[in-house]
Q: What sequence folds into this?
C-alpha cells in the first residue's frame, strides 16, 4: 500500500463530486485528500485525489473513475514526474520567549506569518504534503491551536499529455492505434 | 413544437421504440400519467408494487434485448424501485426508470413524498439524472436510453420534477442527441494483446472457455462455438451464461461454480488456460481465490475495464466488444483437438448432477429436482422462457433444466433477489407473447411479490408459476444444516394455500405432491387459458449438491452423501427419454440405502405433516 495521486477532469455538473466520492466509498478505498477546482476550460473541473492503495488497486480506481459518465480524463501521477503542492494555515501559541524560535522555523520552512496577536501566530505554509506535515511536527511543542490544510493539488511536469483511457486499453499514443472513439475528446 | 414536459416524456419514449411501460402513478408523476392518455401506442401495465415494475422492466429487457421502462412517483414510489434497480445493475440489464420528483422549488424542504432519489440510487445505477426544466427532459431521456443499452448495459434513472412535467418547452428530438464527452461505452485492446491471446490458446494443452452473459449481450454464440470447435476447447458457463451455449452441444460441459457440475469445477482447477468471455469471476464462481485455477494462465475478455484484475489477476486482458475481439483472435488460433484433455474430462463426466437426482428414491415424496427435470422434458419442444428467483430452486433449475437458446433463462444472478421471478416473468411475457413463460420460484420468494398475480390477471396474460414449496427458506436452511449445526433459525415458513390464493386472484391453482402427478399438472397448466399457479409440494429438507462452501476451494465440494446409489443409477441417456416419465424411477434405491445416513432418504420415510411449519 502506498499513496497514489490521481487527477481527474470532470464535467462541472451538479452531483459530480458526490459521484466521485461515492465511488471511493463503494469500492472501499480510503481517500487521503480530495481537492476540486476550476480549470482552463469552461465547464470542466479538476480533481486531485490522494488515495491509499496498491498499484493494482490504483489501476482499478482509475478504471472505475473512467466508468463515471461525467469523468472526462484520469491520470495516475504516482509514478510520473509530477509537482505536488498543498497549503496549510497553522495557528500556533507563542510567548515572548518562544516567538523568536517560531519565527526562525517559519524562515527555515519558507512559510509566512499572516496574522499576529499577543498569544498566537497564524502561519501560511505551502509545499508538498510531507513538508507541511514536518512543519506541523516541529511546531507541535509550542502548542498548535488549530491547523487547516487544503489537500494536495498535483500537476505533471513537462509537456506530456494526460492519458485518455483506463489502464490496459489502447490509447492515442499507441503505435497500433486504429479508429479510437471520438468520444475521448475533452471538450464539453 | 411546444409541449409539456410530460408530453415530451411520452414523445421520447415513443421515439425510442418503447411499446410497453411498467408503472404505478402517484402525486409527483401525475402530470405524466395525465399525458399518457394521448399516447395510446404505448401500453401501460399497472403493477402492484414499484419493485415489480423494475423487475418487469428487467425481465422485459432480458427477454427482448431492448430497454425496459419503469415509471414511479417520488418518495416511496421511487425507493420501492431500489431493489429492482440494484438487481438490474448487478446483472447488467438495460432499464430506464422514470420517477416523479416534488416541484423544483420544494426540493430540499422535506416536502411530502420527497426523497433524494438520485442520491439514493447513485451507487446502483449506471448513471442518473435529476431534471428540473422541461427543456432538459428530452436530452436526459435520450442519454438515459443510450447509456442503458450501450457498452456494458445497466439501469439509468431519470428523476423529473413535477413542475418540469407541467411546464412547456420546445420539443426538439434531433437537438436532444446525446452529448456525453466522458462516456466511453467500449474500448479496444492493443493489437499486440490479440496475438498474445492467440499464442496462449495455441500453446495450451488443457484450455477451457468460461462463457458468461457477455456472449448473450454481444450475440456471439456462434462465434464462441466456432472458436471452441476449431481449437477443441471445452466450454463451461456461468449461471447467467446458461443458454448462450446450447446444453446439447457436446462442447458444453455445464455450469461452473458453487453448485456447478463437479467435473466442471475439477476441470477449472486442472486447466492450464482459462479463456473468460464476458464473465466477471464472481465469488460464487471462483470459490477461494487463493487456490482458484492455480495452474492456469488467464485470458479475460470483457467490455468493462473495471472487471480486469478485480478478483482474478489475468495474463491477457482484452477490453472490448466480444464480437470484435473474437473476430481478431479466431483467425490466429490454430486447429487443435486436445484429445488427452477431453479424455480426462470425459472420465469425470459420470459424476453428474443428473445422476444425483436419479438416485433419489421415489418414496411417494416429490423432489424439486424431479419436478424441474420433468418440467424440462415436458416443455423442451416448446419455445419456453424460464424465470427463476434465488435459492435452491434456482440452482436446481440451473442443474436440471437444459437450456438450448440464449435468453431462455432469466434469473437474478448477481444480486440474488427474492421476489424477482414472478414480476420478471410478466415483463418477459410482454416481450415475447408468443413464448411460454414459466416461473420457477420458491415458496419464500413467491410470497415477496405474489401481489403481481393481480397484474397478470388484470392484463390477461399467461405465465405459468411453479412454486417449489418446501415450507422452508430452503437455501438458508441448507446452510444452517451444513454450517450452523442444523439450528433452523427463522427458516421454517408457512404460506397461504397457494391454490386458494390463485383462485382469490381469479386464476387457476393446482397442487401436486407426487411425481406421478407432475406430467398431468404441467399439461393442465399448458392447456389452461390464463396464468396458473402450481403448488409443487416437495421434500422439505433436500439440499442442492454438489456445493462448494462459500470461500472454500473450488474442487472441495460437498457431495450428496450416497455415492454407492448414485453410481448404480444408469447412464446419461436414461433421463433424456421422455418415456421414463410414465414409469417413474422405481429403483431399488430405498432398500439399497437402508441404514445409510442420507438425510433426504431418512426424511422420506418420516410422515411429513403439511400443517405444521416445523418438522
A:
Amino acid at each position: 500500500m502506498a499513496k497514489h495521486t490521481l487527477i481527474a477532469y470532470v464535467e462541472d455538473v451538479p452531483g459530480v463530486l458526490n459521484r466521485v466520492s461515492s465511488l471511493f466509498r463503494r469500492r472501499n478505498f480510503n481517500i487521503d485528500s480530495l481537492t476540486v477546482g476550476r480549470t482552463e476550460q469552461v465547464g470542466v473541473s479538476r480533481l486531485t485525489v490522494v488515495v491509499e492503495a496498491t498499484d493494482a488497486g490504483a489501476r482499478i480506481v482509475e478504471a472505475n473513475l473512467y466508468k463515471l459518465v461525467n469523468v472526462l480524463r484520469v491520470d495516475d501521477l504516482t509514478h510520473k514526474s509530477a509537482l505536488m503542492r498543498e497549503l496549510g494555515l497553522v495557528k500556533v501559541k507563542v510567548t515572548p520567549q518562544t516567538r523568536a524560535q517560531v519565527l526562525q522555523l517559519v524562515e527555515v520552512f519558507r512559510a509566512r506569518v499572516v496574522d499576529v496577536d499577543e498569544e498566537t501566530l497564524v502561519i501560511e505554509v505551502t509545499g508538498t504534503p510531507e513538508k507541511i506535515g514536518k512543519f506541523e511536527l516541529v511546531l507541535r511543542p509550542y502548542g498548535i491551536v488549530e491547523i487547516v490544510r487544503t489537500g494536495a493539488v498535483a500537476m505533471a511536469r513537462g509537456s506530456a499529455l494526460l492519458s485518455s483511457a483506463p489502464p490496459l486499453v489502447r490509447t492515442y499514443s499507441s503505435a497500433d492505434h486504429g479508429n479510437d472513439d471520438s468520444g475521448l475528446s475533452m471538450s464539453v | 413544437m411546444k409541449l409539456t414536459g410530460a408530453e415530451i416524456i411520452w414523445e421520447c419514449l415513443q421515439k425510442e421504440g418503447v411499446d410497453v411501460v411498467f408503472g404505478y402513478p402517484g402525486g409527483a408523476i401525475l402530470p405524466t400519467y395525465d399525458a399518457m392518455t394521448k399516447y395510446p401506442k404505448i401500453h401501460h401495465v399497472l403493477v402492484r408494487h414499484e419493485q415489480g415494475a423494475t423487475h418487469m422492466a428487467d425481465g422485459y429487457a432480458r427477454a427482448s434485448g431492448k430497454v425496459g421502462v419503469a415509471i414511479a412517483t417520488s418518495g416511496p414510489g421511487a425507493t420501492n424501485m431500489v431493489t429492482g434497480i440494484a438487481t438490474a445493475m448487478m446483472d447488467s440489464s438495460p432499464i430506464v426508470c422514470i420517477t416523479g420528483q416534488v416541484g423544483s422549488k420544494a426540493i430540499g424542504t422535506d416536502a411530502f413524498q420527497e426523497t433524494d432519489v438520485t442520491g439514493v440510487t447513485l451507487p446502483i445505477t449506471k448513471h442518473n439524472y435529476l431534471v428540473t426544466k422541461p427543456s432538459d427532459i428530452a436530452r436526459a431521456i435520450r442519454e438515459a436510453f443510450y447509456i442503458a443499452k450501450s457498452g456494458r448495459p445497466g439501469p439509468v434513472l431519470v428523476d423529473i420534477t413535477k413542475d418540469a412535467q407541467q411546464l412547456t418547452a420546445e420539443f426538439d428530438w434531433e437537438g436532444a442527441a446525446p452529448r456525453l464527452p466522458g462516456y466511453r461505452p467500449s474500448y479496444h485492446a492493443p493489437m499486440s494483446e490479440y496475438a498474445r491471446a492467440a499464442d496462449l490458446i495455441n500453446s495450451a494443452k488443457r484450455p477451457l472457455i468460461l462463457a458468461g452473459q457477455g456472449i448473450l449481450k454481444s450475440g456471439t454464440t456462434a462465434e464462441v462455438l466456432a472458436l471452441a470447435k476449431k481449437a477443441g476447447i471445452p466450454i463451461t458457463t456461468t449461471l447467467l451464461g446458461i443458454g448462450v451455449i446450447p446444453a446439447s452441444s457436446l462442447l458444453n460441459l455445464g455450469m461452473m461454480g458453487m453448485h456447478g457440475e463437479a467435473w466442471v469445477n475439477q476441470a477449472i482447477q486442472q486447466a492450464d488456460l482459462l479463456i473468460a468471455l464476458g464473465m466477471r469471476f464472481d465469488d460464487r464462481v471462483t470459490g477461494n481465490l487463493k487456490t482458484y485455477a492455480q495452474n492456469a494462465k488467464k485470458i479475460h475478455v470483457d467490455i468493462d475495464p473495471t472487471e480486469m484484475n478485480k478478483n482474478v489477476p489475468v495474463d491477457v486482458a482484452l477490453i472490448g466488444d466480444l464480437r470484435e475481439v473474437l473476430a481478431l483472435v479466431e483467425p490466429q488460433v490454430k486447429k487443435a483437438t486436445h484429445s488427452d484433455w477431453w479424455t480426462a474430462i470425459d472420465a469425470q463426466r459420470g459424476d453428474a448432477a443428473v445422476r444425483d437426482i436419479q438416485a433419489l428414491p421415489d418414496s411417494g415424496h416429490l423432489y424439486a429436482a424431479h419436478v424441474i427435470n420433468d418440467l424440462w422434458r415436458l416443455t423442451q419442444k416448446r419455445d419456453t422462457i424460464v424465470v427463476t428467483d434465488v435459492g435452491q430452486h434456482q440452482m436446481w433449475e440451473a442443474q436440471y433444466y437444459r437450456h438450448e437458446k440464449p435468453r431462455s433463462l432469466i434469473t437474478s444472478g448477481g444480486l440474488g433477489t427474492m421476489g424477482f421471478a414472478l414480476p420478471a416473468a410478466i415483463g418477459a411475457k410482454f416481450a415475447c407473447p408468443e413464448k411460454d413463460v414459466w416461473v420457477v420460484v420458491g415458496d419464500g420468494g413467491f410470497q415477496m411479490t405474489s401481489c403481481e398475480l393481480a397484474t397478470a390477471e388484470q392484463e390477461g396474460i399467461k405465465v405459468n408459476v411453479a412454486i417449489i414449496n418446501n415450507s422452508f427458506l430452503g437455501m438458508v436452511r441448507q446452510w444452517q444444516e451444513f454450517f450452523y449445526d442444523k439450528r433452523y433459525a427463522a427458516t421454517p415458513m408457512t404460506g397461504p394455500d397457494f391454490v386458494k390464493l390463485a383462485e382469490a386472484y381469479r386464476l387457476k391453482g393446482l397442487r401436486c405432491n407426487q411425481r406421478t402427478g407432475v406430467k398431468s399438472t404441467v399439461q393442465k397448466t399448458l392447456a389452461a387459458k390464463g396464468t396458473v399457479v402450481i403448488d409443487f409440494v416437495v421434500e422439505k429438507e433436500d439440499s442442492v449438491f454438489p456445493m462448494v462452501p462459500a470461500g472454500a476451494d473450488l474442487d472441495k465440494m460437498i457431495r450428496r452423501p450416497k455415492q454407492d446409489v448414485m453410481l448404480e443409477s444408469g447412464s446419461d441417456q436414461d433421463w433424456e427419454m421422455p418415456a421414463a416419465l410414465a414409469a417413474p424411477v422405481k429403483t431399488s434405491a430405498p432398500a439399497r440405502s437402508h441404514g445409510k445416513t442420507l438425510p433426504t432418504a431418512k426424511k422420506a420415510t418420516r410422515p411429513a405433516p403439511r400443517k405444521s411449519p416445523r418438522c
Q: What stands out?
A: The radius of gyration of chain B is 25 Å. Confidence is low (pLDDT under 50) at residues 563-615 of chain B. Chain B has 27 helices and 20 strands. Chain B touches chain A through 30 residues (CB under 8 Å).
